[in-house]
Amino acid sequence: MIDAAASVTQETYSLLGVKSIGVDYGLVRTGVAVTVGYDPKPLTILKDLNATEVCDAVIRCVRLEQASRIVVGLPLHKNGTIAEQTNLTLVFVAELAQKSLQELGPGVKVELFDERYTSKAAAARAHSRNPHQPLYGTLDADAACIILENYYNDNGLGAQPAHLRPDIVEESRRFYERKTMDEDASYKLR
Fold first, then answer.
1. Residue 118 and residue 42 in contact, taking contact as beta carbons nearer than 8 Å
2. Inter-axis angle of helices 118-129 and 139-153, to 10 degrees?
3. Which phi-psi region, left, alpha or beta, contains residue 47 (left: φ > 0; alpha: ψ -120 to 50)?
4. Residue 186 pLDDT
5. Confidence (pLDDT) at 58
């Protein structure tokens, strides 16, 4: 019985202290948030950037915040089926995962997590804070916060790891290793 309780406790707290970046990806605006537990904070809203620029900005946030996980909201229809935005997000996540592996190494996980109703919840929160404030000021970053809240509340259960083809993983790891060796050599020359 004690072993079972310890197992449940260990599972429940496995995300505690894990710093994560949450991303609510969109073609016009992308919200970014950060958390180390159950109190996410909005970081920024990225506006009018293409997918590559959004990836670069998210990687910068991960570096700046020293996060070890990126949680991207997966947009689905209410019934759980794939929406038009789902495919766009999956393409974005593949690029983000590849860049993350190349720039940050294998220690940073990239995961997808169901984001249904997060924009509505973010709009309701914004309206309750200030009914006269325009919703689009912080909506996307607030949605990224809610994605992280839900992810942590569910202890990451149901999250899907970003999948890359094995050849891309191998190429990205070699890129990261070369980059790391070049940085080490440059540091030693100083």
1. no
2. 120
3. beta
4. 61
5. 98
| 113 CA to centre of own chain | 9
Map residue 111 onto helix, strand or coil.
strand
Instruction: Quickly state the pLDDT bin for 31 (edges 50, 70, 90).
Output: very high
Q: How far apart are CA 147 and CA 155, in angstroms?
A: 12
CB 70 within 8 Å of CB 109? yes
CA distance 115 to 144: 9
Question: What strand order describes the sheet that includes 69-74?
Answer: 41-47, 29-35, 20-24, 69-74, 109-114, 160-161
* Strand, helix or coil for residue 29: strand
Asked whether the whole model's pTM tops 0.90, one would answer: no
Sketch out the chain's domains with CATH numbers.
Answer: 13-189 (3.30.420.140)
Q: Is 171 exposed, middle or buried (0-12, 13-18, 19+ CB in 10 A)?
A: middle
